[in-house]
Amino acid sequence: MSETSKQNVSVVGLARENVQQLTPYQSARRLGGNGDVWLNANEYALAPHFELTAQTFNRYPECQPKDVVRRYAAYAGVQPEQVLVCRGADESIELLIRAFCEPGKDAILYCPPTYGMYSVSAETFGVEGRTVMAKEDWQLDLPAIEQALDGVKLVYVCSPNNPTGNLINPEDIRSLLETTRGKAVVAVDEAYIEFCPQATVAGWLKDYPHLAILRTLSKAFALAGLRCGFTLANSELIDVLMKVIAPYPLSTPVADIAAQALSEQGLALMRKRVAEVSETREWLRQQLEQCDCVEQVFTSESNYLLARFTASSSVFKTLWDQGIILRDQNKQPGLSGCLRITIGTRQECQRDIDALRPLPGATYTVRETSSASKEPM
């Protein structure tokens, strides 16, 4: 090979084969858009205000900042040794795969429709992503899961589930934990648990050494840009994750602001925020049900609503062109015609409704009958 030919060899060919074939997760920011009403990423619409108090930027931060760990443990009702701080719940997903799954040998299991990063993270590490479709009501299909557990080291359950918004039946989660005892880790993703705190399984840690719970400050705490998340688990499991986490997962400014957000005042503001979002969610649900182009609005225990639309692709583009950015879920199994709408401010949600109201609903071909009834073809 000539020197010129050597220089023209693409570096892509040096990447691992599975990475070359990988389709990356299409986050809201990757998908872009030029909107001014962003209802596609389940963020809080207004930025909270914080001022940095730490100035030790010349020093590496603590691997596990004590104030953040202590305050989150108190908030979550667990012990400090049961808390691991990381770069968003997304890092928790990856740490569990890295620590418990052998590439090319073990598998993770998850139940679509659900959060897309479980599959992307598994594929990145060369670990099989095995799926068991949720039932029609989006609950776990426990018999099918049990049949699919051979070789599975890690099961992800998202509750409230993203993007559907429903809670997973707690007794089903408990049954899954019993089935997987001694076989696999069960990771319950509680990214949206602040909107239904009564549904947390954090109190179950004492009963299940193989339970891990994923949390974040991105949603109800309005700190998506901070990238701060948590894994709650028994100390034995936390110790395993500590072996594979980066030396300094949280920067000094992140730890500083996270500690402030978890103060008594910060928690009060978070709960006020949750009440406001929940009230707006109910208002938006009622308004959506009055729009002709909306076929169904699904019950949600989170900061978003999933709805099925007539001609959803056209609806999505119409709003996109008006600067209102929603999240298209058509490619998710079982979610044909569905769009996900983040609960923004009341004004943003009003913009959404004003754009949807003029759009037509389902149209039917009318047949003449002796009774003059109208039947869909």
What name does CATH use for the topology of the largest domain?
Aspartate Aminotransferase, domain 2
Overall, the morphology is globular
Report the portion of residues in β strands: 5-15%
What's the CATH class label of the largest domain? Answer: Alpha Beta
Main sheet?
A: 7 strands, mixed
Structure description:
The protein is an alpha/beta fold and 377 residues long. The protein has two domains: 66-262, Aspartate Aminotransferase, domain 2 (3-Layer(aba) Sandwich), CATH 3.40.640.10; 265-377, Aspartate Aminotransferase, domain 1 (Alpha-Beta Complex), CATH 3.90.1150.10. Helices cover 33% and strands 15% of the residues. It has 13 helices and 13 strands. It has helices spanning 3-7, 17-20, 28-31, 66-76, 88-100, 117-124, 142-147, 170-180, 235-242, 252-261, 264-288, 312-321, 346-356, and strands at residues 37-38, 83-86, 107-110, 128-131, 152-158, 185-189, 211-216, 229-233, 294-297, 304-309, 324-325, 327-328, 338-342. Helix 4 (66-76) runs parallel beside helix 10, helix 5 (88-100) packs across helix 6 and helix 11 runs parallel beside helix 13. The longest helix is centred in the C-terminal third of the chain and has 25 residues, at 264-288. The chain is globular.
Concise overview:
This protein is α/β, with parallel strands linked by helices. The chain has helices spanning 3-7, 17-20, 28-31, 66-76, 88-100, 117-124, 142-147, 170-180, 235-242, 252-261, 264-288, 312-321, 346-356; strands at 37-38, 83-86, 107-110, 128-131, 152-158, 185-189, 211-216, 229-233, 294-297, 304-309, 324-325, 327-328, 338-342. Residues 364-377 have low confidence and may be disordered.
